[in-house]
Design a protein that fits this description.
Blueprint: H1 2-65, H2 68-75, H3 82-99, H4 109-130, H5 139-152, H6 157-172
């Protein structure tokens, strides 16, 4: 019986030390894994943040490029008809949009919705300005009608989207 107690005297402290060591190692390994994960996240942030900023920049540039003022200045020629200008404006806006579709990957869902709505409202404004005009009239009539519609509206849908994007960019800093 004495041997049994001697073995227990040695075994119990050894088991306690073993359990304590396993517990401490678990805590150390868990913290090490958390640190590694945090470092990976920080590395990804360093790589993704510039890409996201570039995406916001490209989307704002897109919105500026599809503004009726900009589109009219780029497309209108002296002998162009209302129908030609209308068609080319819509083609340009849609092609610019398609060119920038991949940017939605880097901006928020709400921001992308703002961009899509701004594009659609711009197309709607152009189509509304086209109503009542003869497609064979000089393109200046369509330009005037578009500018009148822009003046009538309180705030441009494009400007609303740009402001939304600018506010969202502030969060990145």
């Amino acid at each position: 019986m004495d041997t049994f107690w001697e073995i227990l005297k040695i075994t119990i402290p050894a088991v306690i030390v073993l359990i304590t060591t396993v517990y401490v190692l678990k805590i150390i390994l868990k913290k090490e894994n958390e640190n590694r994960r945090l470092q990976i996240i920080l590395q990804n942030q360093k790589m993704i943040t510039p890409i996201r900023l570039q995406a916001y920049e490209r989307i704002i540039l897109f919105l500026e490029r599809i503004s009726p003022n900009s589109v009219i200045m780029r497309l209108q020629t002296p002998n162009m008809t209302v129908g030609q200008l209308h068609k080319e404006m819509l083609v340009l806006i849609r092609s610019e949009f398609e060119h920038n579709l991949s940017q939605q990957l880097y901006i928020s869902i709400d921001a992308w919705e703002q961009v899509r709505n701004a594009k659609e409202k711009t197309i709607q404004l152009i189509n509304t300005a086209m109503e009542g005009l003869d497609v064979n009239d000089n393109a200046i009539k369509l330009s005037q009608a578009i500018f009148e519609k822009l003046i009538e509206s309180d705030k441009s849908p494009l400007q609303i989207a740009i402001n939304y994007l600018k506010e969202e960019i502030k969060v990145l800093y």
